[in-house]
Amino acid sequence: MASHSATQEHYEPKDAVKEGVRCGAIGAGSGLFLSAIQNSLSRRNLGMMTVFTRTGHLIGFTSIAIGALGFTITAAANLREKEDHWNAALGGAVGGAIAGLSGKRMPLVVGCAAGLATVLGVFEYTGGRFDGYFNRSEEDEFERKTRLRENRRRPIEETIRDVGEGRGICPPGYEERRRERIKEKYGFEVNPVKATVD
């Protein structure tokens, strides 16, 4: 879990407008992508410009919603002078409300706002990572993987014992044991062919 202690270091304010514009540009790109997908799934051949004319409202709504989300998260952090899950919940409420406006019904607006606020707030509260919460040190990735390999390395004898001989695994004395097994099982002796002439 994330640390939620009341004692926090000095907060460094961030530019909320810059963050809003950056998130708005990301939202415009994702809206263009969604609009192009919706346009390509149409039954008729509509042409290239219908991405902007027929389904272009998606570009505007996603740009404004995600831009407002980024702006609100940063502005809330600046006003509260701390970075925690409440900032993400406030941003999610504003972004979800704007995204719900496309449905033109108040229950949809409230539902989208509450849903996105809950999802983003819980996500930030639990650490804000998809792969689990842990404090990653500033250790070099190569050194970390080398240390993990050395920690998990098994001796070759143990590996051969578990996997077995053959299939390209030839420990010392393998050829003699193979000849003995063939002689016991099939009753004839295997004479190895020498690669060099005496």
- Round the Cα radius of gyration to an integer and report it: 31 Å
Order of helices and strands: HHHHHHHH
Q: What is the domain tally?
A: 2
* Helical/strand content category: mainly alpha
GO cellular component, one term: mitochondrial inner membrane
Protein name: NADH:ubiquinone reductase (H(+)-translocating)
Keywords: Membrane, Mitochondrion, Mitochondrion inner membrane, Oxidoreductase, Transmembrane, Transmembrane helix, Ubiquinone
EC number: 1.6.5.3, 1.6.99.3
Notes on the structure:
- The chain has 2 domains: 111 residues, no CATH class; 37 residues, no CATH class.
- The chain is mainly alpha-helical and 198 residues long.
- Helix 3 runs antiparallel to helix 4 and helix 4 packs antiparallel against helix 5.
- The N and C termini lie far apart (72 Å).
- It contains 8 helices and no strands.
Which secondary structure elements does this structure contain, and how are they paired or packed?
Layout (H helix, E strand, L loop, with lengths): L15 H25 L9 H4 L3 H24 L4 H16 L5 H20 L15 H12 L3 H8 L10 H13 L12
Subcellular location: Mitochondrion inner membrane
GO biological process, one term: mitochondrial electron transport, NADH to ubiquinone
Membrane topology: Multi-pass membrane protein
Relevant terms:
single chain, 198 residues, mainly alpha, 2 domains, 0% strand
Summarize the structure.
With about 200 residues, the protein is mainly α. It contains 8 helices and no strands.
